[in-house]
């Protein structure tokens, strides 16, 4: 029964503090590597709860780690707290309305992600102290997941050395163990330098950097027919060279995001895109500099870890939403399309239902539904430590991440209940791992076997530093 399990009791003890912290972080949305207030909230909470705190992890001012316990295995619980640009939204309503004009917003629920992970760590800490069980729990406060690849830098710096297993989660429409399918991704900035001139009087003296960027786009587009089918390449202009058409643009800058399911395929594509850029520079008489901004690997599957998390989910069941939660979620769903609402069902291999606003059930492990892939720096941790990732229902079924609807629900009843449930699941999973050394041994053996087939190569070159 709930609330008699020692982990459940510990979760209840710390729930209100961590829920309030999640709401405060929601109220100060900060972008990658600028999460000063958010990191300060997590650091203060770690100290208040009695953790041994290490700040500026891997040289990143907004990364923090707290540890509790002695001896035994080390279980890492990973949190995040970065927001997204342009997703400012008033909370608790069902219409788009900016809270701050052109402001940031927690449209991916990372205010909840970090709070639930820290809640789990607090519960494990209490259980370790009360029972005298050998073991250590570490909370890692990780910035810049949204494109900044902070965990890749942290892995490269050795921040996870000695960790026996890692657990994390993400807010979602349904509760399940995440499928281990994420794309490796490198973001590269290409800066072209040419020569300015009068575009009418002396165009022959100019060398257009903007022409080079556009020719690069043509070349990459012709590559698309000759890439592995799971690859994705997209780009954004960072500097189009100015607003004056009568001046030949002497400088232009474009950022490419290059993805593939396997890290080796992605790294090979990066080199091909660099060659295209060199060709564009050659054709236009310009110079090009390629500089990696961030890079993440593909996910390393660990069935042992995922089955352990599934055991926990099957035991605790789905999130206990109430009628008020369902009413608000239904109003959010009214702003969505049937395609939006059906998508989580297709991923879970379930028949869509349009009369249900919140998912209070648990999806079976590896349901075999539709696969949609993104990228995350969690993958680099999975390459060096056996890892499992949970998705937990915190929002109306069909809510797209990175949307105003996700931001609006970030302080709602369903969000608070979902983050608490995620904290419970992660803490229970950590407890199982600490008390079942054979499970950790099996997870490590599986990890070693997979890495023997494809060893980990950090996608972040050693000369690239966090942009802090």
How do you describe this structure in short?
The chain is of the alpha/beta class. The protein has helices at 6-26, 36-48, 110-131, 150-156, 209-223, 263-284, 303-316, 323-333, 338-347, 378-384, 404-408, 413-435, 437-453, and strands spanning 52-55, 64-70, 74-80, 135-142, 165-172, 176-177, 184-193, 232-239, 251-260, 287-296, 387-393. The protein is globular, with a radius of gyration of 23 Å.
Question: Which labels suit this protein?
Answer:
13 helices; 4-stranded antiparallel sheet; 468 residues; alpha/beta; single chain
Strand arrangement, major sheet:
1-2-4-3-5-11-6
Radius of gyration: 23 Å
The amount of helix comes to 25-40%
Termini, distance in Å? 47 Å
Counting helices, strands and paired strands, the structural category is alpha/beta
| Model regions low in confidence, pLDDT < 50 over at least 5 residues | none
Overall pLDDT level? 97
- Beta-strand portion reads 15-25%
Please provide the ordered H/E string of secondary-structure elements.
HHEEEHEHEEEHEEHEHHHHEHHH
Count of DSSP strands: 11
Counting H and I runs of at least 4 residues, what is the number of helices?
13
Largest sheet: 7 strands, mixed
Shape from CA axes? globular
